[in-house]
Write a structure and sequence with these properties.
Layout lengths: L7 E5 L3 E7 L13 E7 L1 H11 L4 E8 L4 H10 L2 E2 L2 E3 L5 E7 L4 E6 L7 H14 L5 E5 L10 H11 L3 E5 L2 H7 L6 E2 L3 H8 L6 H13 L4 E5 L5 E4 L4 E5 L11 H14 L4 H16 L9 H8 L3 E4 L2
Parallel strand pairs: 1-4, 1-9, 2-7, 4-5, 4-6, 9-10, 10-11, 11-12
Antiparallel strand pairs: 2-3, 7-8, 12-13, 13-14, 14-15
Helix pairs in contact: 1-8, 4-5, 8-9, 9-10
């Protein structure tokens, strides 16, 4: 299903190469043998773009990438037909290592620091986003802010887009989310802990999460999606709230599961689906990613089959 007139741009300020390393019975302070490894072009917005392209959408990408290890990214963009509008920096994009231990059912993350863009680099990025506004209706800003950059960068990028009537998604956490909220993105997708942190409150029940999300919606947001891991996710707008619960499933890798939820939500909204149907589709995207190693989706037929297994209930 293609929507050629709905062009989507994703912006990733701090991308990474996701290196998944399989070490059965991994132990700290010991010599470990690697069974296999896999490298993927990653970073939250890159994952979202990849998932949306796989679902038949026309996608552009921007953000910052290192020139020295860009081959995986360029290959991915070429394979998926993704338009590359990244600002290329000297040096290398960071590598994030995930040590997957199937024997103990554990995943250990080693996340490197990203590159620090200069003020000139930031100016080039703002130019790139401004240029993309000429051809894209949807903008998705995902992930952390690199060191040395202002936490207010999302506010600076989103403000002008909202003034032009663009639909903007923001998926980040901590200060980047707190300082991005005043720009009134249309959609945010925090997990429960990230929502608690930005609102400085404990949220235990679904009703409490819905009430907290409605506070943000009252300040100008349109839709809040709160992911809760195995407990599913809550999809909340001004008048409705739905809880989407996936069936129990074997998790191969958590890489990109949250990004898949963002991609599925946007795909549903662009397709004109109701909030309840968006919730089921987004959860199916996320389930699809959990069943693959690295940031990948199964074929769309499988996603549609998974969508039927999601239980969606209205929260009143």
């Amino acid at each position: 299903m293609t929507h050629p007139h709905h062009r989507i741009a994703t912006v990733t300020l701090n991308p990474a190469i996701d290196q998944t390393v399989s070490i059965p019975n991994f132990r700290a302070d010991a010599v470990n043998r690697v069974a296999w490894k896999q490298d993927d072009a990653g970073g939250k917005g890159v994952n979202v773009a990849s998932f949306l392209a796989a679902a038949g959408h026309r996608v552009s990408v921007s953000g910052f990438l290192g020139k020295e290890n860009d081959a995986l990214f360029r290959t991915l963009f070429h394979q998926r037909g993704i338009a590359d509008h990244f600002v290329y920096l000297p040096g290398s994009t960071r590598v994030n290592i995930k040590i997957v231990d199937d024997a103990q059912g554990q995943v250990t993350d080693l996340n490197y620091l990203g590159q620090e863009p200069t003020p000139q680099d930031v100016a080039l990025l703002k130019d790139a986003v401004h240029a993309l506004a000429g051809q894209c209706d949807w903008f998705i800003f995902s992930g952390s802010v690199p060191g040395g950059m202002s936490s207010e960068i999302y506010d600076e990028l989103i403000g002008p887009l909202k003034a032009q009537g663009k639909t903007v998604v923001l998926d980040t956490s901590g200060d980047a989310l707190r300082f991005g909220l005043p720009a009134k993105p249309d959609l945010i997708k925090p997990n429960r802990a990230e929502l608690e942190e930005v609102l400085n409150t404990r949220l235990t029940t679904h009703a409490e999460i819905v009430a907290a999300a409605r506070e943000l919606i009252g300040s100008g947001l349109k839709l809040v999606v709160v992911s809760m891991g195995a407990e599913g996710a809550l999809f909340i707008d001004r008048t409705q709230a739905f809880h989407a619960q996936p069936p129990p499933l074997a998790v191969k890798s958590t890489v990109g599961a949250g990004d898949a939820m963002v991609a599925g939500t946007v795909a549903g909204l662009i397709g004109g689906q109701s909030l309840g149907d968006c919730a089921a589709l987004a959860t199916a995207f996320s389930m699809g990613a959990l069943g693959e190693i690295g940031p990948r989706l199964p074929p769309m037929k499988k996603i549609q089959a998974l969508q039927k297994l999601v239980t969606v209930q209205e929260v009143r």
